[in-house]
Amino acid sequence: MQASIGATDRVWIRTSGLFLLPYLSCHVPRAHQWMQSPELQELTCSEPLTLEEEYENQQGWWTEEKKMLILCPHDQNRRPISTEEDAIIDSLTSACGDVSLVMLSDDDAEKGNPKLLRSAELDVMITDPLQRRQGHAQQGLAAIMKYAYEHLGVRRFVAKILDHNQASLALFRRLGFEEFNRVEVFHEVHMHYCAEEPSRLHSPGSDYVLAPLHRLAPPSD
Ligand SMILES: CC(C)(COP(=O)(O)OP(=O)(O)OC[C@H]1O[C@@H](n2cnc3c(N)ncnc32)[C@H](O)[C@@H]1OP(=O)(O)O)[C@@H](O)C(=O)NCCC(=O)NCCS
Question: I need a surface site. Which of 148, 170, 212, 216 has the fewest CB within 10 A?
């Protein structure tokens, strides 16, 4: 069933290795600091924003069209997380990156999508190189894809990746994505994954479990 997710229906998702929390205003200083990195600016095709602009940017990230979730690895050494409040407090120090999903219009989606499946573009980053290669990106993507499949009716996922970004190309291939287009002028490879059958929506090698979705209190942030 396709649910309509409004601004007050933000969710957090628990997987076996991660918490995924909506991008809240309390995360802005950390996210702003992340995006000072020239590597992340280049690989995510992002322009640096002022802190004020980042607060404005955050406000637009839980709408019908786009959603961003902050990735926070579980750490057995920290106190157990059982409430949304615990998760938010924990995320202020444990956040290691984010995953985002932007719905595509039919025009954007048409190329390589003859059936015009409902499509969304994905992006992901793990900010600290020391936290990479631990499966966080794969698990975060798998969780948001499953959420988008079940709750937003998305049936096709698109990733636009710089052609020299070997890590990201390997990551999306690992998730079953295939190249459908190249834009040489932007050095971009466009990959997609069509999930017409629920059974195809899986993540090889990942042990994710999507926990029940919890509502956060209507945001006052
Ligand atoms: C690309 C990126 C998100 C990968 O995150 P990650 O958490 O390290 O990836 P995972 O640990 O989930 O990797 C899953 C699989 O992807 C592939 N992969 C990931 N990084 C890779 C690398 N550097 N080289 C080769 N394969 C890689 C592997 O198959 C890996 O499985 P394995 O570790 O069992 O071999 C991370 O390197 C990053 O944030 N880079 C900078 C920002 C960026 O490029 N974002 C993507 C924009 S499109």
Answer: 212
Residues (pLDDT < 50) of the chain are: 1-8, 199-200, 204-221
Residue type, 6: G
**Using one digit for the tens of pLDDT, what is the confidence trace for 94-149?**
999 999 999 998 877 777 887 889 999 999 999 999 999 999 999 899 888 988 88
Q: Ligand 1 atom 23: the closest Cα is on which residue?
A: 167
Testing ligand 1's pocket by substitution, the residue of 36, 132, 208 carrying the most ligand atoms inside 8 A of its CB is 132
Domains, in order of start, for the chain: 11-215 (3.40.630.30)
Q: Write the burial class of residue 8 (CB in 10 Å: 0-12 exposed, 13-18 middle, 19+ buried).
A: exposed
Q: Which two tokens stand for residue 156?
A: 């096709």
Give me the pLDDT at residue 207, please.
Answer: 41
Ligand 1 lining (C-beta closer than 6 Å): 40, 43-44, 123-126, 132-138, 159, 161, 165-168, 170-171, 174
Q: What residue's CA is closest to ligand 1, atom 5?
A: 137
122, 100 Cβ separation under 8 angstroms:
yes
